[in-house]
Amino acid sequence: HKWSIAKEGAKPRILVRLGSAGLVILLLFSASPCSCAKANKARVELKGKSMYVQGKPFFPFGLFCVAWTREEIAACFDDVAKRGFNTVHSYWAADVCRSRETVQAYLDEAQKRGLKVLPTIGDLGQEAALFREGKHEELERRVRDWIRPFKNHPALLAWYVWDEPNAEGFSAPPDCVRAVSEYVKREDPNHPTFFTFTPWHNLEKLPDYRDCCDVICLDPYVFTDYMGLVPKCLDLAAEHGNNRPVWSLLWGCWNSGSRAPTVEETRCSTYLSLIHGATALLYYGHLTEPGMRPEGGDGKTWQRGLADKEMQQLYEAVEQLGKEVYKLSSVLESPLPQGVVTAEASPATLHFRAYRARGGLVLLAANMGKEAVTVRFRVSRPVKGNAVFCFFSRQPLTVAANTFTDSLAPLATRAYRIPMEKTR
Length: 424
Known about the structure:
By secondary structure, the chain is α/β, with parallel strands linked by helices. The protein has ten helices and 21 strands.
């Protein structure tokens, strides 16, 4: 028989008794199989900068602001899952985040479709006020009470602790964000925590927040003129993050008020994020976000959003990027040192990174400038054959003396497959 031990996670104990007939009786007490099994099934691990779900590598590729109301959840999740996304989040101020019942429905509907969820922790304004007033015990109680019903849900991926603590409106000092993350971890040690940091405000303060959560997520929403902010903030997070995973939250189907990003801008910021070490790609937002749709919550607002030609093109572009990332994901964990591939480019707006792959190398490149770039790549190891192949498009490029040349239009991206000779 299996017995429960009062303290969850305690080690099994063996009691030995000598019976009247000289028999030894062994009673084995084991931890309750119910609670431990649920926790193990839901557990998400970080190994270095990589995420593992049930022991398997997982690269989050998802959307923010999916479903603003409960009525929208099922239809939106059907659409998102069909398009190949694996992760969803609803904004902290959305109706679906306001009660335990709607959060439970969000997780349950996601699980039915194989989606992972990034739930928000409560009300950011109230949490910040409690921290400022020194009511730390009350803050911890609120945080732990909120997450307790959901911590073993199999759709849970990570807890979203804070939205842009360095920005006006949601501001919180590092100690506040760190405290909330710690309260979450005390209640649920089986899931990582993360926050978003906007590089548009006080980027120099990023090192102060570096250890607040398990994951650092940056949201460089940029147009062409500011594309350089993507590598700048990701490199800064990598430098100060103590080997923490760095995620990138980019513009998806969103109009900032002046204009929406172009397909080329979205593609370029995505590839720049990968090249500079992002281990998850998220996009703000889905077509149900109020800023991108007519008011109303009848469950069909995302369909009206698709009627907007510009938004439809962006949505399809992000969907295509998901297919590309899925094909590349097996090599993204194996970046090679600088110098294995070098480049001579004019103008100097090209970013690139090489990765170890079966039978050779994979090379990602992105031109973040407004002008076309002609680049000459040189591989420091012997290339097999006389051709380099381009994923997703274009004809093979000719290789001579381990060197090949390409031309990238403004904001263009490339993924090359380079066959290599075996070396001893």
